[in-house]
Amino acid sequence: MSFSVDEIFETASMTLYQGLDIRTVTLGINLRNCVDSDFEKSKENVYEKINSNSKKLKSEAEKLETKYSVPIINKRVSVTPISLIMDSHSSEEKFLEMAEILDDAVGDAGVDFIGGFGALVQKGSTLTDEVLIDSLPGVLSETERVCGFLNVGSSRAGMNLDVIIELGDILKEIAEKSEKSVGCAKFVTFVNAPEDNPFMAGAFHGVGEPDFSLNIGISGPGVVREVVEKNEDCDLTELSEVIKRTAFKTTRAGELIGRELAERLEVPFGIVDISLAPSPMENDSVAEILEAMGVDRAGAHGSTFAVALLMDAIKKGGAMASGNVGGLSGTFLPVSEDMGMVEAVQDGALSLDKLESLTSVCSVGLDMIAIPGSTPADKISAIIADELSIGIINDKTEGVRIIPASGKKAGDVVEFGGLLGKAPVMEVNDYSSKKLISRGGRLPSSILSLRN
């Protein structure tokens, strides 16, 4: 894959003036060969494998930042779902010990986060899975860098309501145990979770992956916003073409760096995730793209249509640029991490219900949503079930990262700091669906699953 001089100069301009960056380089690591009947030996094996490779990831990524002058915002690691390596050592105390090992292994290497503390429970949960779920409040409140996930459904398997019922109480406990309820920001509930997602908090190294893989997530909301603003008079077909060409260029830049980093680490290159990932930084907002397209405020009527057009163009441009597009590859709408979204909520333009409709055409789902800490557990479970059912029926990845902010009420603001930003606490519907949710069981797989 060769790059022209014009492409290189154009990418440099995107980096210097429009906020293009590599949002994350994530090294996937298989831990299954670390298992030992002696738990102390298992912990030693896990620490050594993660720590040594994390140090190399950080060192080589920093060299590439200097070489190309493209910022790499986060260096991260994802590992085999932890439930799969703990069958012989299944107790809450040992899960917490393993989480602390994961935390220390990346912390000592200077890596930002480690994902994979989770389980695949789309059709049911094992005893080990249940112990892991019970350990989540302690793990996510007592570690700094460990991120967790549960995949509770798929279009093929349906959706596991029994686990979703548990999560209402689990999330409230995590919120109460962690400062500013930030532990909930490190946990995602998925359906149709991809095995090669480089973004936290939901990254894990899937069982179909090699021993190692290097996955990269690029981000350039500022780049897309600028080209949209420069083409304010064109029709929507032309606008789609402009966005598509921009996504092509940013994907090419991301793959160049991803492939070279993988070569330096002597691991296979996995995928480039083309998701538009906003941050609290100025001019790094997906909401501002929608407003540049022509809606007064994100959440106004027409916003879902605007996101659909944006997503289609981004995916077409990325798919044309690379044969290794993967992960989530959509648009993130994390309220707390996007200042335009925060302002839209505070202005009354964006509600929880409107966000749910936006997620039908974007990726990830309800992301970094703060709700009152007094919200009943069954209502939290119902919000999760509502959102994830969109993924089941539409055969797409969907996730929920929701924060029942302890001690906060609607209209308050929770300050997380850093890339997590700040979250306005959103109102939830006053009416209950407790009777429906308490039925439990499993949402049957969609008719769309009968494709063989």
TrEMBL record:
Domain of life according to the entry: Archaea
Entries under SUPFAM superfamilies matching the protein: PFL-like glycyl radical enzymes (SSF51998)
Pfam families from the UniProt entry: DUF711
InterPro entries: UPF0210
Entry similarity comment: Belongs to the UPF0210 family.
PANTHER family linked: UPF0210 PROTEIN MJ1665 (PTHR37560:SF1), UPF0210 PROTEIN SPR0218 (PTHR37560)
Protein name stated in the entry: UPF0210 protein AKJ57_04315
